[in-house]
Amino acid sequence: MPEPMQSSTAGNPFFEAWTTPDSVPPFERIAPGHFREAYARALAEHQAEIAAIAADATPPSFDNTIAALELSGRALERVGNVFWLLAGAHTNDAIQEIERQISPQIALHWNKIHTNAALYRRIDAVMRGADGLSLDAEQRRVTERYHTSFRRAGAALVAPAKKRLGEIIGRLAELGTAFGQNVLADEQAPALELSDEAELAGLPDFMRDAMRAEARERGRDGYVVTLSRSSVEPFLQFSDRRDLREKVFRGFVTRGDNGGPTDNKAIIAETVRLRAERAKLLGYDDFAHYRLDDAMAKTPQAARALLDAVWTPARSRALADRDAMQALIQEDGGNFKLEPWDWRYYAEKLRRRQCEFDESAVKPYLNLERMIEAGFYTAQRLFGLTFSRADVPTWHPDVQAWKVRNADGNEVGLFFGDYYARPSKHSGAWMTSLRDQERLSGEVRPLIVNVCNFAKPADGEPTLLSFEDARTLFHEFGHALHGLLSSVTYPTIAGTNVATDFVELPSQLYEHWLEQPDVLRRFARHYRTGAPMPEELLQRLLAARNFNKGFATVEYIACAAVDLDLHSLTQPAEIDPTAFEATALARLGMPHEIVMRHRPPHFAHIFSGGGYAAAYYSYMWSEVLDADAFAAFEESGDIFDPATAQRLRECIYAAGGSQEPAEAYKAFRGRLPSADALLRKRGFAAARAR
Ligand SMILES: [Zn+2]
Q1: What is the pLDDT of residue 687?
Q2: Strand-strand pairing, 190-194 and 223-226
Q3: C-alpha to C-alpha distances, 255 to 133, 181, 187, 229, 557, nearest whole angstrom
Q4: What is d(CA 606, CA 374) in angstroms, rounded to the nearest whole number?
Q5: 162 C-alpha to ligand 1 centroid (Å)
Q6: For the segment 357-390, what is each residue's pLDDT rounded down to a tens digit?
Q7: Ligand 1 centroid from CA 198, angstroms
Q8: Sign of the C-alpha dihedral, residues 666, 671, 672, 678?
Q9: Residues with CB under 5 A from ligand 1 (ion)
Q10: Rounded to an integer, what distance in angstroms lies between the CA atom of residue 535 and that of residue 531?
Q11: Catalytic site positions
Q12: What integer pLDDT is reported at residue 258 of this predicted model?
């Protein structure tokens, strides 16, 4: 791999002040070779800062301990923000190599800080004396967060346990990186290369265009289907060729599960074992208890109770849909039993019949550019935000940037949209930041990023989205607003730095506005004629939104349940991931025709880093909140009700982690929600009453 400028710091952009507009990272000057020395210097600098705080001879105070910690590690954050953005959205062999080296180093660096006994004594002293200090609510909360995270990281442990914890954390970081890189490798392998018309049967034009573009990107003729979700799902939905559907499906569900160098099963077994050991060292029964102790749910039992309440009606709905699809097969003269690779195909046929609604009829009205505008429009109506194009450095020519302003014209920050799939990008969709909002070191405005994987159209063609794609766009933009609207002093509690089972509230809540006729009438316009979506089609689209919801709920809950099972092992035993998955699904009563949305060998949420480990239930937990929160607007009679929107901004989008999640929600809604609004939203309310 290239290793430029190993010995010289000259020209390394990470050692200079950035004079770009809004101090955006000067991407065009940043090369992979810069990261190694930038990391080395930033880590050393942070270590020195921490040593100085820990060794301070003056008695511990908020300023010399907590605020000092908040101001430390800035160089590390600057290089990390850029590095992790590229590692996810535009990686290459050089970056992957650095990632393998640097992940365990960073994990150990933080472990050393979190287990620094002298430092913890000072934090503990500030925490215990907090009542006597004249701290404001935010300072008190930040002190609490430091105390909690140090305690949970093992600061109070004795030396041998601390040493073992350090080993575990370093190893887990290596395993997480390897897991993600294996999945990326498997997804980039072409699943199918097609050339003749018979193989393309049933595929609409938008898919043929995207598949042709995919082939061109790889320097091939014909049409390529990859194993990324954005390529596989429409193929399974539309291809008339049952044999090809089976082939693509089998490739998709065995990502990370093919034996050989990209197989993730040994990584899973070791990760689960080490997490159980880590939880034990910290005094918890198992990893799930450890993880949820610092979440809104508090216990795995609370999370499971929610999953159980929704599982039964969801499964019944899915089985009823399965039977209806089997009847369609018979009607068509098909002499076979519905298999998992048939589900999306026959669901599409069933939808056309039951809802008189055809996914490909909607697509010409869902132009990416217009849907981005729809997201901006909603933010303007709710929060008074405006968006204008910004000419700033980016990491890829496809990336777009906007300057975001408040109603009074004051700048809020910058928003970057990186919407197209490409071989250098991990699959999925996510929000991240190049800089978080804060006021501790002056008025710092956030740089917020959305990354998606929409299929890129041929040159000159518009990007047409499915309704699910449009929903993803709104979802990620909801996260982006959480970062943009953040209004706190201390970075530790800024933006999306909230509990995992609360962080999906701002994103999932935002999806509700996409489903509003007022928004769709304005922005769902035909890409060629500009005509609005016919009212009748719009009504059918909205009526069909809960179609196949049983399937979607089952494939999701299966993941959330298996995640909790994997992390409820009380002894750090060696598991066989395949057998474990089969047993867990059998116990749940998983229908044969549905697979987990993410099978363990490619379940990046929980194994590519620990982001959602024992916390995949969070999406549904947050949905309880978002369904109930949107009802506040409906009850007001105005989906943009200014008073409700103002409360939403203050208590949720701007507040970051400045309160306990339950308190923040109560401040907005006046009470806590129940699961009823969620069951109604998913169309299961009637099923439950039976
Ligand atoms: Zn999300």
Answers
A1: 43
A2: antiparallel
A3: 54, 11, 7, 11, 20
A4: 32
A5: 33
A6: 777 889 999 999 999 999 999 999 999 999 999 9
A7: 39
A8: negative
A9: 504, 507
A10: 11
A11: 476
A12: 94
